[in-house]
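Translate sequence into C-alpha cells.
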Amino acid sequence: MGADPKSLLSDLILMVMVDGKIRPSEIQLIEKMAKRMVISKSEVQELLQNPKATALPFSEADRITHFYKLMLVMQVDGEAHSSELEALVNFGLKMGIRPAVTQQILKKMTQYENGIVPAAELLKIFKIYYN
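Result follows.
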C-alpha cells in the first residue's frame, strides 16, 4: 500500500510551522511537491490552514521517502532550528526511525548541494542500522 500523499503534505506543512515562521522557499517546495502528487492548490491551502493528523506509511520504502522529504523541507530555508530538529526526531520515532539514523542523514546532507543525498547513500545509512 502506498503512502497517502495528503498525509505526507500535511507532515511537511507541520514541519515548516514548527519554528513559527513559514518562509516563501518552504511554501514553494510544498507547492512543488503537491503538484507532483496531483494535489490541487485549493487542497494545499486547506491543509495550510488546517493540517491533518497523519497516517503513517506502512512500507519501509514509504517511511524512508516520507522521512527524507521531511528532512528536505526542514532544510530548504537554509536553517535547522532546534525545534525543527526535535520535531524531525519525533516524526522519525513515530515511523520507527532511530535518532542515530536521523543524525547520520543530517550529517550526510551537509556534504551535498542543497542537502539532497543520493538514494544509494540514503539506503546505505538505513542498511547499517536496520540489517
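Note: The chain has one domain: 5-130.
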